[in-house]
Design brief:
Layout lengths: L10 E4 L2 E5 L12 E6 L3 E4 L6 H11 L4 E5 L5 H4 L2 H8 L3 E3 L29 E2 L5 E4 L2 E7 L8 E5 L4 E5 L17 H12 L5 E4 L8 H24 L5 H8 L8 H17 L3 E3 L9 E3 L5
Parallel strand pairs: 4-5, 5-6, 6-7, 11-12
Antiparallel strand pairs: 1-2, 2-3, 3-4, 8-9, 9-10, 10-11, 13-14
Bound molecules: zinc ion.
């Protein structure tokens, strides 16, 4: 996907919508995290991005002295929230989010959380937004759209009058979303895709990568991709693979080696989703190290 933004330079995507890409490129962040400044006489910021002095300067430049009504965050990963406390302290703006970081399920005994370092557990949230809540910032009407899956507190922000949705890490054009237990949940992720497919917005502004101008076909494709992955995993289990490393080795042959850890977590998410529907089961506790099996069908 072509996306080669000037890092640190505000780009106008639509009237009253500026995007600034942070200088944190990587295999999980693409060119960097997108921060958005929305409004005219006053503004809101969506996802201030990582704690980085250059990015803070670029954001303040884009805000240009206009009153900042609130700092909205799509979810508590540090590449989205790291700068929020400093921006809040400098501007006096409150931080609004769905809620504090939390896992989709509790940790199994002895299980490590591979993504713990990414989580922001100390974000000072001034206001918790409920799914469907409508509020006004920067002269725009916003609607909070809970979209759990990537993490349990993931929330998109719609501008329903303009057909725009700030989709965070839930729907991105450049890559599929990481769904990594215990923080993430494949069942939640698929339900959130279905939920957005029932909405009317036609332009998505994601947390990483360029705008998505055909979100519905993209989301149908994402859903089909996950179903294909699930079928491949069922097939590996049927062939006798029992461990996540064996399944990853079989079905992620073309994947960047830096992403194989993430691939293992995605497979775990699929296995948990199968287990929730009674289609597969771990021996003992669910986790990356478990042995997994298809559940025998009733005769
Ligand atoms: Zn994230």
């Amino acid at each position: 996907m072509e996306f080669d933004p000037r890092i640190g330079a505000a780009q106008a995507l639509a009237p009253g919508i500026l995007r600034i890409v942070a200088p944190n490129p990587g295999p999980m962040t693409f060119r960097g995290t997108n921060s958005y400044v929305i409004g005219q006489d006053s503004v809101a910021v969506v996802d201030p991005g990582p704690d980085n002095a250059d990015h803070l300067a670029a954001l303040l430049d884009a805000i240009d002295g206009r009153p900042l009504g609130a700092i909205l965050v799509t979810h508590c990963h540090l590449d989205h929230t790291g700068l929020a406390p400093r921006l809040a302290a400098l501007t006096g703006a409150p931080i609004w989010a769905e809620g504090p970081h939390r896992s989709a399920r509790s940790l199994e005994e002895g299980e490590a959380n591979a993504l713990d370092a990414a989580a922001d557990r100390s974000l000072p949230i001034a206001r918790r937004l409920a799914d469907g809540e409508v509020f006004h910032l920067g002269g725009e009407r916003f609607e909070a759209v809970a979209t759990p899956g990537h993490v349990a507190n993931h929330m998109g922000f719609a501008l329903p009058d303009r057909g725009i949705l700030l989709s965070g890490d839930h729907v991105m054009g450049w890559a599929t979303t990481l769904v990594a237990p215990p923080d993430g949940s494949m069942a939640d992720y698929m339900a959130s895709l279905d939920k957005l497919l029932g909405r009317a917005e036609t332009l998505y502004l994601p947390g990483h990568g360029g705008p998505v101008s055909q979100p519905h076909p993209l989301m149908r494709g994402l859903r089909a991709h996950r179903r294909m992955r699930e079928r491949a995993i069922i097939e590996r289990l049927a062939q006798g693979d029992e461990t996540i490393p064996a399944i990853v080795a079989a079905i992620y042959r073309q994947t960047d080696p830096r992403l194989l850890g993430a691939a293992a977590l995605n497979v775990l998410a699929h296995l948990e989703f199968l287990a929730e529907r009674g289609l597969a089961a771990p021996h003992g506790a669910a986790g990356l190290d478990a042995r997994w099996q298809l559940t025998p069908r009733e005769p």
